[in-house]
Automatic annotation (TrEMBL):
Record-linked Pfam families: HSBP1
Name used for this protein in its record: Heat shock factor-binding protein 1
Record's subcellular location: Nucleus
Gene that specifies this protein: LOC117639533
Organism: Thrips palmi (Melon thrips)
Gene Ontology cellular-component terms listed: cytosol; nucleus
C-alpha cells in the first residue's frame, strides 16, 4: 500500500513539474512577444515624429503656415 501511495505521489510530482515547465515556457514566449510589440510601437512613434517634422519642414519651405494649435 505504501508503494502504491509513493507511486501516486511520484506521478503527481512529475505531472506538477511538467505543468510548471509548460507554464514557464508559455510565460517566456509571452514576455518575448510583449517586448517585441513594445519595441515596434516605440519605433512607430519615432517614425511618426520624424514624419511630422519632415512635413513641418516641407510646409515651411513651401511658405505654408503650419496647423493652428
Amino acid at each position: 500500500m505504501a508503494d502504491m501511495q509513493e507511486n501516486i505521489k511520484s506521478g503527481q510530482d512529475q505531472h506538477n513539474c511538467a505543468v510548471q515547465t509548460l507554464l514557464q515556457g508559455m510565460q517566456d514566449k509571452f514576455q518575448t512577444m510583449s517586448d517585441q510589440i513594445i519595441t515596434r510601437i516605440d519605433e512607430m512613434g519615432t517614425r511618426i515624429d520624424d514624419l511630422e517634422k519632415n512635413i513641418a519642414d516641407l510646409m515651411t519651405q513651401a511658405g505654408v503656415d503650419g496647423p493652428e494649435k
